[in-house]
Amino acid sequence: MSLIAFFGALESGLIYGLVALGVLISFRTLDFPDLTADGSFPLGGAVAGISIIAGVNPWLACLFGMLAGSVAGIVTAWLHVKLGILQLLASILVMVALYSVNLRIMGAPNLPLLGEQTVFTSFVTDSNGYWMRCLVIGMVVILAKLFLDWFYNTETGLSMRATGSNLRMAQAQGINTSKMTIIGMAISNGLIALAGALFVQTQGGADISIGIGTIVIGLAAVIIGETIIPAKRIWLITLAVIIGAMLYKLFIQVALSSSALRSIGFGPQDLNLITALLVVLALVLPKAKSKVLSRKVRAS
Amino acid sequence: MMQANDLRLTFNPGTPIENPALRGINLNIADGEFVTVIGTNGAGKSTFLNAVSGTTQVDSGSILLNGIDVTKKSAHQRAHWVARVFQDPMAGTCEALTIEENMALAFKRGGKRGLNFALNQNNRELFREKLSVLKLGLENRLSDRMGLLSGGQRQAVSLLMASLQPSKILLLDEHTAALDPKTAAFVLELTDKIVNDNKLTTMMVTHSMQQALAHGSRTVMLHQGQVVLDVSGEKRRGMTVHDLLNMFEQTRGEKVEDDSLILSQ
Predict the structure, then answer these.
(1) CATH number reported for the structural domain that contains residue B241 in this entry
(2) How many CB pairs under 8 A join A and B?
(3) Which of A153, A174, A232 is closest, CB to CB, to B118?
(4) Is residue A175 less than 8 Å (CB to CB) from chain B?
(5) ipTM tops the 0.95 cut
(6) Which residue of A has its CA nearest to B52?
(7) Is the N end or the C end of chain B the one with fewer CB atoms within 10 Å?
């Protein structure tokens, strides 16, 4: 694997680190199976894209993208808490609806951003692009992580965690669980949309299909992260899922670069298969590890 | 102070499994009173408790807490006035959160939650102090996950949590039913102590007649969704389970058929 390829994987890993943080909030903290991600990721990209073309400051464009994602998350949460629609179903409905919304926003199936100002323009030169982009995205990821680490330790953050852990008990303690779910989903999809906004600026354009599989990558990142770095403290958990995203992308890059695999016909079309196998491995390994350990203990 | 006026609630009305759980419950509890509530299976004890806590909405009737009509309010809105300990130790606490985090949640019951840190040196000290009273060593395990504690330990902490903030009524929902006899006795002793120390208005639902008479100052018996017995003061002092059963027979003209109600410790 070349240096460029390595940094490319790192860059992608950092972007999807934001997705992993979003998935952490919905799937783990709120216990809300949320598939909106496949719609909010391109939504963030689309809104940021048209803002940039309209001449808006690229950082502000990212903010607009993030807010759009938050709105999508709020809609999903609202469908569940106010209309009683099952969480998974509510998120699928919003994801499906966003396909049309995204097409409308972009006005076409894709939106080129070549030559436009991006958040990287003022930092990147012809030679340092491949690592400078990682640095800029890394800064954003660190800020997002620090925000979450702080938020989870506040009274409101704790209320949100209680909502996902034990709804009835949370209500008995005076927590408005509907409000907490809505806030959590807003933050979650805001982060995922932010990832989308950054993604389109690295790719030079937004496309209607960039969201497909976002949730799978996010889940893979969270599972891999939790397996490699089992943690109880919040700051370590958020770090773990970001590292999980980076490891996932690096692993994919290794698999794609491998001449051994290429010789047997493996190609980019097998990415989803590799992802699924990787997640199964990540889920099975901890159990296998503890079985081996307990056998050793019994033998001694 | 709690007033329940003519509470009526039917589950699944108009269907073959229609169940009139509450058929006009009237009960007034004065400030500082400790009332025990007993009843046969299906008498409506838990339903009544859920109605007072706001978990279930009644069909008709009203519930007043300190003169404020809370009938239409949801459970989380009533949390300002209502403290509750659930029957299932798992249901009353968040097992994924630590002991101190659970206590921090209870500490803010009824209050506004903002962006201050949920845990700080001050409230950790308070929690440690409160936990040491239990003499279970839990004050040294503040950052252990709640899921690691046994059922009895969790109920003890739940009781403590319920008393961290003042309440207009403390609801105890057969809170020792899931515990072994020795632990149940420990939790009941703790209940008496906490209720006494904080002068809490309390309503304890129990499935044991013996327990109902041994604790509190007043005993109410529910049967088929209504209050059929209400004893307190002189009449109640020195009453045995046998006396209670006779009283029931006289009032209702039928015997109590529920063995576990009569025989449980």
Answers:
(1) 3.40.50.300
(2) 92
(3) A153
(4) yes
(5) no
(6) A172
(7) C
